[in-house]
Amino acid sequence: MTAPDPSRAAGLPRRLFCFNAGFLREPRLRRILTLAGHELRLGLPGASDGIVVWGRSPTAHRGEGLAARWNLPLVRVEDAFLRSIRPGRSGDAPLGLFIGRGVHFDPSAPSDLERLLAGDPLDDRHLLDRAQDGIARLRHLHLSKYNDCDPAVPAPPPGYVLLVDQTRGDAAVRCSGASEARFRGMLALAQDEHPGAPIVVKLHPESRLGLRPGHFGPADRSSRVSLCDGPVSPWHLLEGARAVYTVSSQLGFEAILAGHRPVVLGQPFYAGWGLTDDRAPPPRRGRRLTRAQLFAAAMILAPVWYDPCRDRLCRFEEAVDQLEAEVRAYREDRHGHVALGMRLWKRRRLSEVFGGERPLRFVRTAAGADASGRPVLVWGSPPVDLAAPMVRRVEDGFLRSRGLGSQLVPPLSLVADDLGIHYDPSRESRLERLILSGPPPGGLARADRLRRSLIEAGLGKYNLGGRLGALPEGHRILVPGQVEDDASIRLGTGEVRTNLALLRAVREANPEAVVVYKPHPDVEAGLRPGRIDARGLADAVAARADPVGLIDACHEVWTMTSLLGFEALIRGRPVTCLGTPFYAGWGLTCDLGPVPDRRLRSPEGGPLPRPSLEALIHAALIAYPRYFDPVARRACPPEVVVERLAQGALLPADRLSRLLAKLQGATVGLRPLWYRGSR
């Protein structure tokens, strides 16, 4: 859904003339302005035009002077409060902008954000619910304006006073009337008001990266004062703080969201609304707001958010979806990976998905992987014995492509499991842990929306389509055939482990039912073993039929470990499992196969809470896989991949991939023995 045109709604001019080369150098900035209803121009403006400047930047005076001389509207642009992974000076493009009159950090004149906070009722229940969910989600995901932190890095022991540094000469500091002396005074004030408490000074991300100096440095360390100059999550820092002091940093806003009442020595946008301890109260403000109202205005109503995959304006929640995908890729890949024994045709997509921060290094031997010291990616579950710090088992995700992997169609989703792999029930997988931990804030509603979109678009794993012929009348049971040497059969089945044995078990248990057998696409294509003669056991063989259409046409599904069982659950069909797929054992299926005790009981022996279908969907389709958009060529949320698959405008396997596959097949003897036969 396309977002409304916020700029025209605010009465801003369509044509904006710029006198700063920065607007011309930044394609993302120009694109957001265009989508917001503006036309960026050079030259001399007319009477109905406006002039655009970047906030209170050092070059803004050019546009300010011309706007005053020609009596034209002045439009200021600034980054929104969820920007990117790294600061703009590192080259990252913004995810959202403030476009309007005034600038939020300058209290000398009301900004559009201040007008919202002062005059909008901010009492719509749906809006405030969105705000509460947004606050919880940012905290859970450890998202902030800049996101090059690592939530695994611990904060100092709790009980400290958190002091927030800012960069020297920053416009937000200047507009608050602050100076070096104000920051020195803030340190002294925090020590006086909290005698004996340790002081932790959090450096600004740009200072930590060496881009701009701050007001504090190594010389300020003492027995009471320490510097936080590592990639600690700001949310972890806020959780452990007994008090927060700031001049005008955005971290003061996040401190409010975390439950603090920060001491504020400047005049940022969040001061003056009854949520801060203001030592320099800003003019004009006196309204009392809740945290949800402050968040709703600052994060949902005021900014213009951009979706870089769909190339359109979007809602706040969609911007968070995109940032979540990009930040996850950064955090998991920033140290780099070594890929062991990967087939040649897979390497391009693996590099695109896992090599965005550091180039993926491909090795053929375990010794080469051990020597790297980096996390090691291996395909599936080969019997590797590595001394490397982490092994991640890679497999296709559950929304894969339009076409088969055996036909070299590249995947749109991959999983990299650091515990096990989802189809091996003999050991815990990361997917199991995600199912047991439950969905994050807003996760159930998001999973339900995703489920509905999958049903509406008729999507599954491979999305091959196919005709659905007439089926016999009666109670139809769909039986999906599988590749009989597949790892999920080898590792996840009991007595029933062949397609023929599965059909016999279904017929024996359901003598009056109409049994519909669906051969696996790889088997139908002659690429993998598992072909059987189903006559006498199946009432119909749905050769090359659309699996989603078959689910809709049948009343239930019986399977060993096929993903088609999960797709049937998504569509509300009863599922009986004779093996142990990832979706079995949670109370959502009839389980006739072996179920690991850890899916039934806690380590203490008590029963585990049963996840809902939406919780299972969130774990399997949102939290577990990584998605790659082949159009924008970047990490993306699953909702984007659903749209790409529904549109069908995806590229098939290219000639180079086929050539590489043949080349590697011809040199199979050069690969490690454990890798032979891997797809």
Question: How would you sum up this structure, described in words?
Answer:
The chain is built from 25 helices and 26 strands. Helix 17 (443-457) crosses helix 23. The longest helix has 18 residues, at 316-333. It is 33% helix and 15% strand. Mean pLDDT is 91; it is low at 1-9 and 664-679. Strands 2-1-3-4-5-12-13 form a 7-stranded mixed sheet, sandwiched between helices. The chain has a 7-stranded mixed sheet with strand order 15-14-16-17-18-25-26, with helices on both faces. A 6-stranded parallel sheet has the order 8-7-6-9-10-11, sandwiched between helices. The protein is elongated. The protein has 679 residues and is α/β, with parallel strands linked by helices. Among the domains are: 143-292, 3-Layer(aba) Sandwich (Rossmann fold); 335-422 and 637-675, no CATH class; 468-612, Rossmann fold.
Task: Summarize, please.
The protein is an alpha/beta fold and 679 residues long.
Give Rg in angstroms: 29 Å
DSSP, total strands? 26
How many helical elements? 25
* Oligomer category: single chain
Low-confidence stretches: 1-9, 664-679
Q: How do the strands of the widest beta sheet line up side by side?
A: 2-1-3-4-5-12-13
Taking all residues together, what is the mean pLDDT? 91
Here the CATH topology of the domain at 143-292 equals Rossmann fold
* Main sheet: strands, sense, barrel: 7 strands, mixed
Structural class by SSE content: alpha/beta
Percentage of residues in strands: 15-25%
Shape: elongated
Please bin the fraction of helical residues. 25-40%
Topology:
Elements: H1 6-9, E1 15-18, H2 22-25, H3 27-35, E2 39-41, E3 50-54, H4 60-70, E4 74-79, E5 96-100, H5 112-119, H6 125-141, E6 160-164, H7 171-175, H8 180-193, E7 199-202, H9 205-208, E8 225-228, H10 234-240, E9 241-246, H11 250-257, E10 263-264, E11 277-278, H12 291-301, E12 304-307, E13 312-314, H13 316-333, E14 338-340, H14 347-354, E15 361-363, H15 366-372, E16 376-379, E17 391-396, E18 413-417, H16 430-437, H17 443-457, E19 476-480, H18 487-492, H19 499-509, E20 514-518, H20 521-524, E21 540-541, H21 547-553, E22 556-559, H22 563-570, E23 575-577, E24 590-591, H23 613-623, E25 626-629, E26 634-636, H24 638-647, H25 655-666
